[in-house]
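Bit of a strange request maybe. I'm writing a small parser for structure token strings and I need a real example to test against, not something I typed by hand. Could someone generate the tokens for this chain?
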Amino acid sequence: DSVCHAFSTMSTGGFSTRQDSIGAWDSLYVKVVTTVFMFIGGVNFALIFKASSGNFRDVWRNQTFRAYLMVILAMFVMFDLALAFNNLVPDTVEAYTIDPLFQIVSTITSTGFTVNNFESWGPFVLSLTFVMMFFGACAGSTSGGAKIDRILYLFKNADNELYRCIYPHSILSVKVNEKVVSPNLVNKVIAFLCIYLFLIVAGGMALTACGVPLVDSFFSSFSCISNTGLGAGVTGYGNSYDILPDAAKWILSLLMLIGRLEIFTVLVLLTPAFWRR
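Reply from user aminoacidic:
Good idea to test on real output. This should exercise your parser:
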């Protein structure tokens, strides 16, 4: 069990040898260790190499890494606020500390381990889970999702465009880690995110055609293309994706493949120009 979960944690794969996942051991120590290594699995491996060489200053200066930390911290605060108003959550220190932190890190790194039925934590927590599945962790890691790097480019570019609305003759560039990001890369990131959202919507609509409930369809589509593997509703705690129709499994398998191989890598195969070469 230890070896299997070590592989599954560092690869942010999320497969478990137990039906109840990490919750099968009901151990604070297991949760803490798993949380730490899921977090490491979501960090850019180049930064991990720098840290192993003692170069912690460059790691901390990295804007993507700091954004990764800030998103986790912000989600932790919002999770705790949501749990404080939920009467179904046991009033224990562990329920307000390690359990939400475990679930946040598991979701944002696309690992997909669970320690509890997070659906019982309320709809607000479920909506925050959507956000984290979209964000993902750092590029250069084993996590899925859109990646925080791309979200950072998007926000900085949006900030520039808002500034141009006031000062239209301004010449601005997107800068990350004190380096200018080329306009071609910014355009590619925007195109990626647009296609990413389109595939989520298309997958959710296709699942509704298979008879899957609306909310469950879009959650499953989102979960699979981000490679998180979390379930809600019909695929939630106590159930699994095996209850879905065969057609739905084919759709979700395609979404998982696209999400794992990156969107452009797969979709470029559908362009005529690729085959003419």
